[in-house]
Structure to design on (344 residues):
DNA sequence: ACCTGAACACCGTTCAAGT
DNA sequence: ACCTGAACACCGTTCAAGT
């Protein structure tokens, strides 16, 4: 049932992922969902866990940039995935998989959290922009999004690479 | 009218800031709002601009950490302010005040954008956690939020300080 | 144990019609 | 120019009642 919810999220996006629509997909009354989940928020927390489970387990020696990209890619793998994870991360529901992995590759726990917040913010904006593009609600239609988006991500990673202690790959 | 919307946002939060409620506050029918704004999104963009206008103009010589803290404080000044700014930033509506100021203090534009995304992500999480706290929807009730929150913010700023080129204040 | 039916208190948005 | 009235197509959640 969380599988179908994740599937529906990917197809219609978070704004259209309603309890009523999910119920219709399951050919069940909306109220039936409340036997399985106490609230929509709890349902979304289960979906967030599924999304985070896609983060690859790094073998020892993997550098920070690769780990960070793995987390970002997991968030981007499903439509509006970053926003779902963000809202449940805020409520401290859901798995702490991403933070634990980041902390294992960065020493400091505050820095690991900060890096996760950057990845989360970045991925959320990327996905919201994808939606804006699809409905044509953007100011400059002449501008392509995904072009310099990755450059911004890499600039953020470059910044956090300096606190990574263990290995460095910073020129300039 | 955007003033009242900002006021209402601060009082009830984004989830309860509805067009109908705003209309009631103005003692007007909901449909009346659509003469002034084409959609709720457009109304929120106007609110976001008001929020961003609170960012202090830095005099030349102000270091990056101070500028970043000024932006964060502007986002935190009104309830759910960060989320409102985030959603309009994604749609490329609203002012680019924050990014412009950051770019003037950091050289690189990609790094400035990355830093803004970190601040936005961080501030959004902080505010969502405040709400979670207020309704008691958090997992560990024994844990105080705002304590190590600022430490995470400072860890992020420390990372970006290294790309700031102009001036540095990094020990460790 | 799991689901239905019906209700409660809401949403954003449109559009003819009024002043 | 600015607003009302009424409607359309939705929401999340609760709760007695059914099987």
């Amino acid at each position: 049932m969380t599988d179908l919810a994740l599937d529906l999220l990917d197809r219609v996006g978070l704004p259209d992922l309603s309890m009523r629509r999910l119920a219709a997909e399951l050919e069940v009354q909306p109220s039936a969902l409340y036997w399985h989940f106490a609230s929509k928020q709890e349902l979304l927390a289960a979906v967030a866990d599924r999304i985070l489970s896609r983060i690859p387990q790094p073998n020892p020696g993997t550098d920070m940039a690769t780990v960070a990209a793995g987390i970002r890619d997991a968030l981007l793998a499903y439509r509006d995935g970053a926003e779902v994870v963000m809202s449940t991360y805020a409520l401290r529901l859901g798995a702490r998989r991403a933070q634990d992995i980041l902390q294992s590759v960065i020493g400091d726990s505050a820095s690991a959290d900060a890096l996760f917040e950057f990845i989360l913010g970045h991925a959320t904006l990327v996905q919201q922009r994808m939606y804006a593009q699809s409905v044509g609600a953007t100011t400059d239609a002449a501008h392509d999004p995904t072009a310099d988006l990755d450059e911004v991500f890499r600039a953020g990673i470059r910044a956090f690479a300096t606190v990574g202690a263990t290995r460095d790959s910073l020129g300039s």
Observations:
- Chain B touches chain A at residues 41, 86-87, 89-93, 108, 110-111, 113-115, 117-118, 120-122, 124-125, 128-129, 132, 137-140, 148, 151-156, 158-160, 162-163 (CB under 8 Å).
